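so my prof wants the structure for this chain in the tokens format not the other one, which i didnt know existed until like an hour ago. anyway here's the sequence
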Amino acid sequence: MYYYLIAGEASGDLHAAGLMHQLKRIDPSARFRCIGGDMMAHEGGGVVRHYRTLAYMGFVPVLLHLRTIMAGMRQCKADIEAEKPDVVVLVDYPGFNLSVARHVSRRTTIPVAYYIPPKIWAWKKHRIRSIKRYVTRVFSILPFEVGFYAARGYRLDYVGNPTREEVEAFRAAYTETEAEFKRRNRLDEDKSMIAILAGSRRQEIGDNLSRMLEAASQFPQFQAVVAGAPGLDRAVYDEKLRGTRARIVFGETYQLLSHARFALVTSGTATLETAVFGVPQVVCYYLKAGKFMRLLKRLFIKVKHISLVNLIAGREVVPELIADRATPARIADELRRLIDDDGHRRRMLDGYGEMMRLLGTGSAAETAARGIADMASRKAGH
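here's what i got, hopefully its the right format
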């Protein structure tokens, strides 16, 4: 079967690659064409356009690069029509992917699968209309989405959570000691590490990294180690790191989390990864015009939490410092509490365990791949 996959950022590249790996096991004839990244290419996908040329977030960055984004969207739509795959698989990245879904549904008979659907429970609930009209089948990785979508008349499949699988598979295979990791990366072998996960996009890093580093610098008994995002140059980090004692490692986020004692994390998949590794964390996500953005959040975002850990658990397990509250002083206060308060730290780890039970143990990529392969087979008439 012929699969066309679209992912628009680093985490989507990772999850799409896992899906492709399982599709190859289930369907030995599988062929792939992609809008995606290096991991999808490694699984055998012909990458039409790299996600780096499309991964912009926020009103101003999107506006500034709108011509590039629109060109990429036109290229993708035309390519799908020309290639005529058996199924189109969308992975997260809703602004782009829902436009593609509409085009494919209106202009072709190709079924559309959505793996990791839009987070409409947080905002833009109107997108449920597009999903109902243009998406053939949705495969969710968050257990609470089943009830949310069902209440709005759409049945989706919860397939398990790939982040849990990926972390657990890594931990089962990883044998390097903390001392070996530090020695290989020329880190201080006498100091425990605070992992800094400042996001996967340039603007996230620009907005958050300096604040996180300033907070971590108040704990000289630890060393701050930044997880460099895949697909970004070191130059993105150099200005922020200059004048600090922090170090950076690229392509080794899981290795770093395997040995870190604490973490400062921007919201997103990284909060879930950190929790599965069992690393106590502070979630911080600075936004410009913070007070105004918090007002907008109250008006438009209808969930109590923004981190996946808290959303899955249904309560506050990890502290969230959002918008103008993500100051170095407040981040340092929450980090100090984690370091000094054993009871607080234990309660967070207990919350991680509760979250893990809710995620379940099924293989998300394999379950979704079976459903998607069935869609492709039906389209091909097999």
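also thought this was worth mentioning. The domain at 2-160+362-380 is CATH 3.40.50.2000 (Rossmann fold).
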